[in-house]
Amino acid sequence: MREINAKQITEVVKKLCIDANFYIGDDVLAAFDRGEKAEESPVGKEIFQQLKENARIAREEKVACCQDTGLAVVFVEMGQDLHVVGGDFNTAVNEGVRQGYQEGYLRKSSCNCFSRPTRKTIPRP
Length: 125
Fold this sequence. Notes:
Blueprint: E1 2-5, H1 6-22, H2 26-38, H3 42-61, E2 82-85, H4 89-103
Parallel strand pairs: 1-2
């Protein structure tokens, strides 16, 4: 049986949360290039250029690519012969997300839909 320390899980999840918001994948950057080349509108071309510039700034200055850093969804494949030591697996993952958002200065943009106060809507004329 293999063992992994819960702290290792936390550290990896933290790093992944930060990296996912600082580094745009090469496949996405290539899609921006293709979109810019195919785009006929000058405004559309400029938007693609801004997206690429934003990705560069995020990568170089270590800031999130977007203000809305989304909701962390973690998919894990773990064999039955792995044993987590030094803590609970789910707690380690959640702590990694918490630390990643805190240390990466990422905006927490989700809320509990049942406890969030409702806003009064203004009727339209």
